[in-house]
Every structure is written in C-alpha cells, then in structure tokens.
C-alpha cells in the first residue's frame, strides 16, 4: 500500500501533524503549495488542512483533483482553534466539500495552535470578528487567547484507522 500525505499549513499546526504522521507510516510527504503530486501511484491519500473563515483551505485541491483521487482511500484531517466537536467545525467541513466527496472521505478534525503575536494583521482582524460573533463565552475567550493543542496523541484515531487499512491490504489477507 503506497501512501501520500499532502498538506497546507499557514502557522505550522497542520505541517506538524503531517510530519508526525509521516514518521509513523511509510509515506511520501508533500506541501501542496510547493509541489503538485501525481496521485495516480498512491493507494491512500491523506490530506491535511486548516479552517479559515468557515472553510477548509485545502478543500479546493481535493475538488480540483477529485477525478484523480475518488477511487483511492482518502483520509482528511483539519486543524482549527475550535474544539473538535464544535458545530462550526462540522459546518466548515460540510461547506467545503460536496456530500458525494464527504461520503468517500474519512474525516479527522484536530485542534491546532494559535499564538496571537504570530498572526498576520488580517488574521488578527478575522479572529476578532469571528470571536465577536461567537455566542458561547468559553469559545469566544478561547478564540482570543493563545493556545497550543497540537499533540502527537491527537493523531491516534487517524493512525489506528490507517493501520487497520494497511492490515486489510497486506498480502495474504
């Protein structure tokens, strides 16, 4: 089974998860902003992206290449500042990819990191506006505070799923 991990990262959370995943499974690793991979030679493709303004940034790459990847095993992880079970995470996933794509993709939302001093001026503004619209005070506070929830253990469900798929495809199975 040949695996490709491709990602887009702005502040490093998604890249960190992709690198950890790459160390755990035999795979090729591609920053999709720097390289355009040839998807044909892979059995499994893992996409990693981040949420921004209610959309998943790498989703357009998936849409643009759907005809090349739709018959592959596709795993997808995202990073965001929102708690994994927050309704806006699900909404961003649903808004970013059509239902026929989502049915084929195994999705793993993950927490990211936010260090406010490292944000661009535009991202600071977007974070302020987004947090102003948030009704839950705890979530609002979290959107305005530095945090780092990027942890290797967060990848465990994705790794377990991927390893199960590897075992299914192993010779003699």
How many separate helices? 8
The string of secondary-structure elements, in order, is EHEEEHHEHHEEHHEH
The biggest sheet, with number of strands, parallel, antiparallel or mixed sense and barrel status, is: 6 strands, mixed
Look at the helices and sheets and give the structural class: alpha/beta
Please provide the count of β strands: 8
End-to-end distance, in Å?
13 Å
Q: What Rg, in angstroms, do the CA atoms define?
A: 16 Å
Mean pLDDT: 90
Low-confidence stretches: none
> How large is the share of residues in beta strands?
15-25%
Share of residues in helices: 40-55%
The coarse silhouette is globular
Kindly describe this structure.
By secondary structure, the chain is of the alpha/beta class. The radius of gyration is 16 Å and the shape is globular. The two termini are 13 Å apart. The protein has eight helices and eight strands, in the order βαβββααβααββααβα. Helix 1 links the parallel strand 1 (3-7) and strand 2. Strands 1, 2, 3, 4, 5 and 6 form a six-stranded mixed β-sheet that branches. Strands 7-8 form a two-stranded antiparallel sheet.
Descriptors:
173 residues; 8 helices; two-stranded antiparallel ribbon; alpha/beta
